[in-house]
């Protein structure tokens, strides 16, 4: 049975945000982009939780943005999906690296101008996806992604995502194609991680990083 039918996907509610925040932080613990941006989160867990709680809560009220979770929240998955407008973390406190955050924002600005405001201006955009480690390999993340891909099929719009290295394999397996990347560097100008730009449902020309 397709994953999109195995799990009932519903919109998140304000009463879900506390648990969603905790599971997202845990689920992204091994993600390279998350570690790059928030290297001090384990020293200051309250700062990290509050910052991301505010972000997830704000996403509930942004037009054309939909936060999705499985019908049973104890399955520990959270996704926020399919938009053009972006929202970046504003509560940058002790858990984060300001210079890395600045680099990450700059890379997203480049991606926005290069891809989402040009050839893929009309698109569905996957904003964030996290799964707690003990609930992976059960098809839950695939079901959440497929929710958006089904709407891509219906509307004819391309689906897009900026992926970390950790998630890139899953997106590729589901048919996303890499069209470019942006490198994120540390204070010594050494490349630490890459943000991969991927699309689904389009004939694409693959490009390197800028």
What does this structure look like?
The chain is α+β, with helices and mostly antiparallel strands and 210 residues long. It has a single domain, classed as Gcn5-related N-acetyltransferase (GNAT) (Aminopeptidase, 3-Layer(aba) Sandwich), CATH 3.40.630. It is built from seven helices and seven strands, in the order αβαααββαβαβαββ. Strands 1-2-3-4-5-7-6 form a seven-stranded mixed beta sheet, sandwiched between helices. Helix 6 links the parallel strand 4 and strand 5 (158-163). Helix 2 packs across helix 4 (45-59). The radius of gyration is 16 Å and the shape is globular. The N and C termini lie far apart (41 Å).
CATH class: Alpha Beta
Number of helices: 7
Q: Based on the structure given, which CATH architecture is correct?
A: 3-Layer(aba) Sandwich
Number of domains: 1
Mass-distribution shape:
globular
Q: If you consult CATH, what is the topology? A: Aminopeptidase
Residues in helix, %: 25-40%
For the record, what is the CATH homologous superfamily label?
Answer: Gcn5-related N-acetyltransferase (GNAT)
- Read across the widest sheet, the strand sequence of neighbours is 1-2-3-4-5-7-6
Number of strands: 7
Q: How are the SSEs ordered, and which strands pair?
A:
Layout: H1 3-6, E1 9-11, H2 17-27, H3 32-37, H4 45-59, E2 66-70, E3 77-81, H5 98-116, E4 123-131, H6 140-155, E5 158-163, H7 165-173, E6 177-185, E7 191-200
Parallel strand pairs: 4-5
Antiparallel strand pairs: 1-2, 2-3, 3-4, 5-7, 6-7
Helix pairs in contact: 2-4
